[in-house]
Write a structure and sequence with these properties.
Blueprint: H1 7-12, E1 53-59, H2 60-69, E2 71-76, H3 77-80, H4 92-104, H5 117-127, E3 132-139, H6 145-151, E4 157-163, H7 164-169, E5 171-172, E6 176-181, E7 183-185, E8 202-204, E9 212-218, E10 244-248, H8 250-253, E11 256-259, H9 265-277, E12 283-286, H10 292-295, E13 299-302, E14 308-309, H11 311-324, E15 332-340, E16 349-350, E17 353-359, E18 378-386, E19 389-397
Parallel strand pairs: 7-8, 11-12
Antiparallel strand pairs: 1-3, 1-4, 2-3, 2-10, 3-9, 4-11, 5-10, 6-9, 13-17, 14-16, 15-17, 15-18, 18-19
Helix pairs in contact: 4-5
Length: about 400
């Protein structure tokens, strides 16, 4: 990515790669939380930086229950299929590849039936919709009315605000867990991995406005991949619960509560009282929708659509971010590019994502090494701007072999 302010300086100056920050890398040592790793190391499925804001939209009734129980609700993936029939499913390109493989390889199995990998994988993926349980969050601080209309269910919509690192470090469960950003793809053109859990981190472009961060919890045993062509009787499936919960440290995780834009002062006080009852210190504010990105520590994610992003689009977005910044409010803007190492030297920007952070003059500015996750196989480029001027760009490789 080239920097509009000073592209020559961007390409010519790099920081010492041997230095490592601390606050951005608390996953190395710290309180027990979700086991490491939380995302696959060698695919386009990746994690935003520890500092990135995420929000869980829900209704007041569910929010109160969450505080009372100290648990996050995870719904079965099958229930999400009502909204997205392709939830957890692969693209037609993947199915075609599996059908071609099945047509060329049809040995007779021990029970006398023919092998059919394509049919077996379809049954497997369908069965896992009862095995995977999902908790869906919004990435970044920008939001639209559609978020409240779709996700803020109940008599009053609220949103729990935290960060990637906090939910990672303070979510507790004995189940297998995966977390990461959802990638939005053109299902007629792009391909994705052919089995869970990856399939639950890809959605069609029609859903890209959700800008989703997802936690997937695996319940029960592992279903059998039945590759028989036309089985007379299906293998029995493991028993799964209808829902799952994971405990979390609400007083440590919750940074702020947003209530829907039309909330009254009485409703805001109602939410404040709930927090007080559960000894949680956090601000309660009415949502300002798109204006929120100007008035709070703005954090935004780009590049998770279609697995690829053009240089021109990124340069234009960076220019827009710098020009739209109120420099009387913010003193520093950091623009971060995070790339899987396997895609670092490619001609296309594939599998990358980009983050924007605005900081006020009285805030602590992170060291460049604190962005991203050093233990994941990532290349990180951090470009810093102060008062509208490009200061320096740091290129940071993962130290992992």
């Amino acid at each position: 990515m080239s920097d509009e302010a000073d592209p020559e300086q961007s390409l010519g100056e790099s920081a010492d790669k041997s230095s490592e920050g601390t606050s951005g890398n608390e996953e190395v040592s710290g309180p027990p939380g979700v086991p490491y790793p939380v995302a696959y190391r060698n695919t386009v499925w990746t994690l935003p930086s520890n500092q990135m804001v995420i929000r869980r939209y829900t209704g007041l009734e569910w929010f109160e229950k969450t505080l009372e129980e100290g648990e996050l609700y995870f719904g079965p993936a099958a229930s999400y299929a009502d909204d997205d029939p392709e939830e957890g499913q692969v693209t037609e390109e993947v199915r075609t590849r599996e059908r071609v493989q099945s047509a060329s390889e049809q040995p007779i199995l021990q029970d006398g039936s023919k092998m059919n990998v394509s049919a077996g994988m379809e049954r497997f993926r369908q069965n896992t919709q009862s095995q995977y349980f999902l908790s869906c969050w919004r990435l970044g601080t920008d939001e639209t009315p559609e978020h409240w209309e779709k996700f803020g269910t109940g008599e009053l919509g609220v949103a729990i605000e935290t960060t990637v690192n906090q939910i990672w470090r303070h979510l507790h469960t004995d189940a297998e867990v995966y977390i990461g950003m959802v990638r939005y793809i053109d299902r007629k053109r792009d391909t994705i991995p052919n089995s869970p859990p990856e399939t639950y981190f890809f959605k069609g472009l029609d859903y890209s406005w959700e800008n989703e961060f997802r936690i997937a919890l695996v319940g029960g045993g592992y279903p059998i991949v039945d590759i028989r062509d036309d089985p007379d009787e299906e293998f029995p499936l493991p028993d799964y619960d209808e829902k799952e919960f994971a405990s979390f440290e609400s007083d440590t995780v919750i940074n702020r509560i947003l209530v829907e834009p039309g909330a009254s002062e009485a409703e805001i006080r109602q939410v404040e009282n709930l927090l007080t009852e559960h000894s949680i210190e956090a601000d309660v504010e009415r949502s300002r929708l798109e204006r929120d990105s100007k008035w709070c520590p703005s954090q935004i994610v780009y590049g998770n659509q279609n697995l690829r992003t053009s240089e021109e689009e990124l340069d234009q977005r960076l220019k827009s971010e710098i020009e739209s910044t109120d420099w009387s409010t913010y003193s520093t803007v950091d623009w971060i590019q995070i790339v899987p190492l396997w895609a670092k030297d490619g001609n296309e920007i594939v599998g990358s994502h980009f983050e924007v952070y605005r900081y006020r003059s009285d805030e602590d500015i992170p060291e460049p090494e604190e962005y991203g996750h050093t233990r994941l196989r990532q290349f990180r480029r951090v470009s810093r701007f102060e008062d509208g001027e490009h200061i320096l760009t740091w290129d940071l490789d993962s130290e992992e072999d």
